[in-house]
Design brief:
Elements lengths: L2 H14 L22 E5 L8 E4 L19 E5 L6 E10 L5 E14 L5 E10 L4 H4 L8 E9 L6 E14 L4 E11 L1 E15 L10 H19 L2 H5 L1
Antiparallel strand pairs: 1-4, 2-3, 3-10, 4-9, 5-8, 5-10, 6-7, 6-9
Helix pairs in contact: 1-3
C-alpha cells in the first residue's frame, strides 16, 4: 500500500469522525404544540379508581416557575382530589439504530398530598425497548428497558406534603432494536392531589467518535506531512544519507 493511499484513507477516517450537531428524535419534546406526537394512558388498578388528567396547565402543586424557565408550555399530568389510585402518563415511540447509544434528558417537577396510611407516589422516565403500549408501560421495566430517572415518596401523614422543584434528569441507553418508546410515568395511591410536570425533553444519538479536528486545513497539513514522510521512506538508504 503506497503512502498516498494510506494518507487518503486516514483523511477519510478523520473526516468521518468530525462531530455533527445532534438531532432531537422526539416530536414536540418541549410541548409547545400541546400533546402532539405523544400518546396518553391512565390505568386504575381496580380499587378506589382515580384518573390522571393530561394538560399543559400548572394548577396543582405548581412549581416555583411554570413552565420550566418561565417560557412556553410544560406538560402536566394530574390526579384529582380524593383517595383515587391510578398510574398514568405519556409515551412516544421513535426509530433508533440497534447497537447505538442514545441520551435522554429533560426537566421535571412534582408534588403530592398524603391521605390514608400506606400511601405512595412515584415519578419515572423510562426508555422501553421496541414499540410498546400502555399495558407494557404500566408494568415495571424489563431487562431490555432502561430506567432513566425516578423519584418516589411513601407514608406521608394526612395532608402531609412532598414536592420537588424543577430539576434535570439525564441518562443513556443502548438500543437493542429498531425502535424505542419513551414513557413519562406517574403513579399514586391513598393520596389527595398529585401532579407531575415535564419539559424540554431531548432524545439524541451519542456521537460514536470524538476525534478533534480543528478545520479542513488541519487535515490537509496532516496529509501533506504523511505524503512527505512516505516519499522520504521510499528513497534508498544511500539517497537518504545524501
Amino acid at each position: 500500500m503506497t503512502a498516498i493511499v494510506r494518507a487518503l484513507i486516514l483523511l477519510l477516517l478523520l473526516a468521518g469522525g468530525t462531530a455533527v450537531r445532534a438531532q432531537n428524535l422526539l416530536t414536540n419534546g418541549n410541548f409547545e404544540a400541546g400533546l402532539a406526537g405523544w400518546s396518553t394512558w391512565t390505568a386504575p388498578p381496580g380499587f378506589w379508581d382515580g384518573t390522571w388528567i393530561h394538560s399543559n396547565d400548572c394548577d396543582i402543586w405548581v412549581p416555583t416557575q411554570c413552565p420550566f424557565e418561565g417560557a412556553g408550555m410544560s406538560h402536566a399530568q394530574k390526579k384529582g382530589s380524593g383517595a383515587g389510585n391510578a398510574h398514568g402518563g405519556l409515551f412516544q415511540t421513535v426509530a433508533v439504530t440497534p447497537g447505538r447509544v442514545y441520551r435522554l434528558r429533560g426537566a421535571w417537577s412534582g408534588g403530592v398530598t398524603g391521605n390514608a396510611g400506606g400511601n405512595a407516589t412515584w415519578w419515572e422516565v423510562v426508555a422501553y425497548d421496541g414499540a410498546v403500549g400502555a399495558a407494557t408501560i404500566d408494568a415495571a421495566p424489563g431487562p431490555l428497558d432502561t430506567l432513566i430517572a425516578r423519584r418516589d415518596v411513601s407514608n406521608l401523614a394526612l395532608n402531609g406534603v412532598f414536592q420537588f422543584q424543577w430539576e434535570p434528569f439525564d441518562g443513556t441507553f443502548t438500543a437493542t432494536s429498531s425502535q424505542v418508546t419513551i414513557a413519562l410515568k406517574t403513579g399514586s395511591f391513598f393520596t389527595f392531589d398529585a401532579a407531575g410536570y415535564h419539559d424540554d425533553l431531548v432524545l439524541e444519538e451519542v456521537a460514536s467518535s470524538n476525534i478533534p479536528v480543528n478545520s479542513p486545513w488541519a487535515l490537509v497539513v496532516l496529509c501533506l506531512g504523511l505524503l512527505a514522510t512516505g516519499a522520504w521512506m521510499r528513497r534508498g538508504p544511500g539517497m537518504r544519507r545524501g
